[in-house]
Amino acid sequence: MCARPRDEGVAASTSGAASTNRSLCRTLRACATRTFERLSTDHYERDVPGEESYTQFNLQDLRRGHPDRIVIREFRRAEESRNGADWEWWFHSGGSGFGMRVQAKRAKRGGGYDLEHVVRSTGARQSELLVEDALIAGCIPAYVLYNHRNWVPTSETGRAVDCRHGLGTPTQLGCTIVSALTVRAELRGPRPSPARVRDRSMPWHRILCDAPGRGQTILEAAHTAVRDLHERGRDTLRAAVRDQYYAERNHARYSGSDDIEGWPALRDAPAAANGQGPSHAEEAVLGLPVYRGLDELAQTPLSPLPDRVRAILQGREAEPTDERLAGAMVVDLDTPRGDRA
Is residue 43 within a helix (H) or strand (E), and if so which, with residue range? Predict the structure, then answer.
């Protein structure tokens, strides 16, 4: 488990009184460090389990470290649906909150991820199902990446920086989070780069580490961080569509053909062929059913928790929204304004 990483220990006691004084941010940092070290060791020993195992390690440590603040519910699933399952994460305070639909990906030995995975039971791309299922569930879609290699992220948002819960270390990049729209954008190109997706991710603890003096509750700050993550993904997707538009236009100009080998996703919005511009291409793609409503979802204010989440909090039966949902983690952020996460 990730209970005692070398640089940031998680207190052994799991009593309610003890966990109240512990920081969720600090626990997430500790889990990231342990994931980084464990995945590195597993690759070295050539005995690497799937994403579900690392997810279970982290969920167990979060639940043990904060039993008064975190409730986890696992759902029974058919064997075929275990391949490519998601989790819902809900953050709440006083009956209101927001949700995320999360898919985990562990880094391979060389640092890449299986982002092009196809779910056997449906034949559909996992990334597309993640976005579609998130919309149905009223959640913002994201990927959690489990990493084992040091790198310097391309943006300040992605770097492991110091916060009031501890010093920034490269091992905190062991668990990072990125918008599912960023993944969808990368998959639209002829040569998807896992490194570009990784570089646009950020350490997952930064969701629950609001900057001092912002005048927000922890829940408000977390909601802002997740919406910003989603909006960066949307902007990346728009840029990818524009790149495809210009690639298609140039190809048509110099070859006299609409058949663009290596750009299969252009079939979604063949804008150049019919004389439309890049803005039309953006709207055509973002208007597809898989994306429709995600902009509105990101702008939705904190809202009352859905019945299925309240049922989990009350210890009642809760039905998953679909067979691919592995479980739900519900995090209580009900702390007074100005308190630390």
Answer: helix 24-44
